[in-house]
Amino acid sequence: MTDAGKEMLAAILAMGVLHFTMMMWLYMSRMRAFKLAGVTPDTATFATMRKLPDWALNPAANYNNLTEAPPLFYAVVIVIVLLGQADMVNVTLAWLYVAIRVAHSLWQSLVNRISIRMMLFAASWFVLAAMIVRSGWQVLT
């Protein structure tokens, strides 16, 4: 495997670290919110969850977001590496995707103004689309 291929696969691992970090943030913020509300995980209901403060809900929403588009990123990176298309452009795109998703996670969890979050989400999709189109073009030509 080339060094570029290893760097691309490392981007997948970085996304895994982000996902794990957001899971821990979700858990810690939810447990803190439960404690402040006098609720235990055994007595929490769906109605209780909706009443949690934003600082406890936002990390959970972001964790869910990380199960949507990022799995496609994982697949695209693996395909690019398997097809021998890992080069500096794709490495740069992969790490740019990771950086934007980190920014998106932080923004959604800490600030969550929708207009900026939408721009970060769209930017991550443009980067992912560039990887898909570039790889598809290389396969077809």
TrEMBL record:
Q: What is its main location?
A: membrane
Which named protein is this? MAPEG family protein
Organism of provenance: Asticcacaulis taihuensis
Question: Keyword Transmembrane on this protein?
Answer: yes
* InterPro entries assigned: MAPEG-like_dom_sf (IPR023352), Membr-assoc_MAPEG (IPR001129)
In terms of Pfam families, this protein maps to: MAPEG (PF01124)
* Swiss-Prot/TrEMBL keywords: Membrane, Transmembrane, Transmembrane helix
User: Where found in the cell?
Assistant: Membrane
One cellular component term (GO) for this entry is: membrane
For the keyword Cell inner membrane, the answer is no
Membrane-crossing residue ranges in chain numbering: 9-28, 72-98, 119-137
- Lineage, top-rank taxon, reads Bacteria
